[in-house]
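#onboarding

Welcome to the new folks! Below is a worked example of what a typical request in this channel looks like: someone posts a single protein sequence, and someone else replies with the predicted structure as tokens. Don't worry about understanding the tokens yet, we'll cover that in week two.

Example request:
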Amino acid sequence: MAQHGKRYRALREKVDRDKLHSVDEAAALVKELATTKFDETVEAHFRLGIDARKSDQNVRGTVALPHGTGRNVRVVAITQGDNIAAAQEAGADFVGGEDLIAKIQEGWMDFDAVVASPDMMAQVGGKLGRTLGPRGMLPNPKAGTVGPNIGEIVSALKAGQIEFRSDKTGVVHAPIGKASFDAEKLAENLQALKTAVEAARPDTAKGIYFRTLYVTSTMGPSVRVSV
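Example response:
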């Protein structure tokens, strides 16, 4: 197991691992613990009371973070006709149809999100399913990345809409901003994400839904949040 350096160990001593922090306290503390020279990403990690082996208990959804994620999301829009201009006007970084599908098939992956109009999904799913699916980037109506109004979809992603989903261990990992954000903005983003994860609770999930919630920066120790 890799050993943490002196900086990390010193930061960890500032955290009471048994204390349950409020959302506001956690946001302020995680900022204090982000001491590297680069602008660290702040993430939230929810351990949920679901049986991740059952498909009807998977948690998935989208949320528009009030203050965005602090990063530029490079969006690919696969569409045709009038939607090409709409996607471009909304700020999509790459817009096209069969040409973009072919480019991705050839191994190009220089983007962060893929959206598509319904009239292109047969080709997108058939040709890119094996490439984008395992990466969680295949356009999907449930994820808000497929729809007739491609401009609105692109605008939402550019403004800070993110997708979240539970992994095979029943944990949801999602970014809530950058360490350079004001603590208040991090707290509001975290609360918005928490509300969205709660709203996505499967009907079949029994017992305690929120088991634990931690927030952490890229290189800092985790802070436990009261749920």
